[in-house]
Amino acid sequence: MTAHLPALREADPANRARYGGKGASLAALARASFEVPDGFIVPVDVAARLRGAPAEWPPELRRELLARLAALVPAYEPVAVRSSAADEDGAAASFAGQHETVLGVTGGDAFLEAVARCLASADAESARAYRQSVGADAEAAMALVVQRMVPAVAAGVAFSIDPVTGSRDHVVVEAVAGLGDALVSGQAEGQRFLVHRQSLTIQERPHTAPVLSDDLVIAVVRAALRAEDLFGGPQDIEFAVDERGKLWLLQSRPVTSIAASAPRPDGLGGWYSEFDTPTSDADLWTSANVQEILPGLLTPLTITTFNQTVPRAYTEDYHELGLLSADENPVFMGCFYNRAFLNMEATRLIASRVLGFREGALEQQYLGGPIDDGWRTPLPRLKTWRHRILTTPRMLRVMATLSKQADRAERAVLDAEQKVRAVDPFSLSSAELQRYRERILDFAARISRVHLRVTGVAGSGYDTILALVRPVLGDEAEGRVPTLFTGLPGVESARISLDLWELSRTAIETGIAGRLREPGFDPRDPALPARWQERYAAFIERHGHRGLNEMETAAKTWRWDPAPVVEMVASYVDLDPAHAPPAVLARQEAERLALTREIDARLGWAQRRVFRWLLPRAQGWVALRERTKSILVRAARLGDWHLAAVQARLVDLGVIREPDDLFFLSHEEVSNVLANGLRLDLSANVAARRREFERNRHVILPERFRGRPVPLPPAEAGHAGDVLKGTPVSPGRVTGRARVILDPKADGPLQPGEILVAPVTDAGWTPLFALAAGLVVDMGSALSHGSTVAREYGLPAVVNVRQGTARIRTGDLVAIDGIAGTVTILEEPPAA
Hints:
The protein is α+β, with helices and mostly antiparallel strands. 43% of the residues lie in helices and 14% in strands. The protein has 26 helices and 24 strands.
């Protein structure tokens, strides 16, 4: 029996041709005294006789397989049946995920069926395509590994070398609770630990409760390094931890992605990505402001679409206003490592040509303070004043008509949406779909111009008010002036929470509040009460274009994914009415009026007249900025109405294999295919860009830099007594436990009274503000979305903290001073 089906320890690790890559690797680990689950191998020559269904196999082989299984698990405990192709898990190609593995197999019949499934996977179309792509033999020589299942409480993978950067300084560990198959298959995102190879110090850890203790993380790292020594090269190991805390190795294979997809070094400690913006040291880039609109990693389709629309939105408008000469076309927005950045030098050039420009004010607004890096692009005095004189009348006309421009833009967007919704996109030809795409992009670029104008005027108005009252408020001016912009009527972002509150009241009144937390609850179910249906439909019509990362093409808005809306309404059901949006806004209005009276009484006669004239206008511009952002998002999301048709068309043409592959094509590629009806296989482009996207996911970039950014090392977690400094945007002081949330859909939930710590906020975050006691944000300014909404909710808030989500951990006791702009870590999380 053992001659045919040897135990792992009995198999020869050098005989990959007979035992397959996985079998040979596990045999080597077992012989080297690693903790490997007991098991046996079905060699290639034996497996070759097991063709078709189990009933068709030679009877003596069936009996031998069942006898071997009974010897391994006498009580028929669960086993794992794993494919082991002769050429998998090698240095050239891993075949990861190409061949079948069946977990939790119990009983003889289920075992034989699992063996058949694994053997049949060698002939699957995806496996054949992979073999062809890596130059492997067309026919797979397949062995099988059968092992006891580990009752895992946690599992994951570890890389003895960074598989993304190729750096040998760190070991990367990713883990999930329970079995690790969802992580390995890419269906779940694990917790990530980054461990220094030499010192074995954990330099990056998850913000949520870790599934692995520090001791287990280090044990995994030691196992990965031992495996590297055993096999003589960087290893990718799979592991599991049982209920006793024992670490088991399930697999070890060479890291193949380094050579296959190694990025081109940029000489600065990083690498070039495909869609990076050409730049030089004359450009000063910042993530402030722009990453509130385009936060996080952007897909290639989003990057290249914005490359088409943003230059037109900026330069056409500035040419029309006379702020740029006909021959001037500076780059305002760039992209590095799949992230968006704003060019401060181009922005400063425009601001300098507006009458009333104050040196340093722009840096204060966007960066939280002046910068001094020894570089400043000269502004020719004569040319600058010529532009100021010529543009002032035009700028005054713009300021006088901003509300009317916003009204026209909103009517145009709503009209365009109705026209788009009236068309069946699946009935259109490829060329017609492309014409729709182009018209929507042109339209969105025009709408962007209105938002850019409002943003500029709102910023100037806010800065002027700040300068006007600074002599009265002194050092507290920056922290208290935001109160003058709270409790304002009609702020669009605050309207979202008010409408969600009303929805929660409707849920209570109609008796469905208890169903909101039921799995699979669909708020659009026609069987629900008519009053709920009416209110929910009205909410979606008004706010359905909003959502998390709402300007990212691949992100679903609330119209297409109602789950976030249901979750938010459910969180409002039990909210104390005293802390509900209507009550909070009323308190904020009272505080605003009180501060207005205080400042008015303390100003001199001339300054008081200016203050009384300017303040209501500046407040209106700030509120209008939130409204025009919503209008812009609605225009940009018009493409959602034909997105599914474009995806289906490209799949039918063989351009992509899966609908979501569309987001990893460029705008130009999609346009070329649709306009010309081409049948191009762009799956290789998609695969390369997906690898690049994952490579860039863990890159940490500075908040501002000249030329190309230099990636930063992971920030160390803060300690009790550390004080983080940022920009105060909503006054007040509060102490509470921190909740670090990088993604509202994956992290949390935020508990009432906790301090929300976030990288950036957009409309998708707004409903969390009703639960939070305070707000800390890595990026932002006084006019950013999070700042505006925090003021409406009366939340003490500090933004532009830069590394708050890295330095602060969930459970830290922190104190926010929304006037001084500080966040103090008072104590670290209590031990579990």
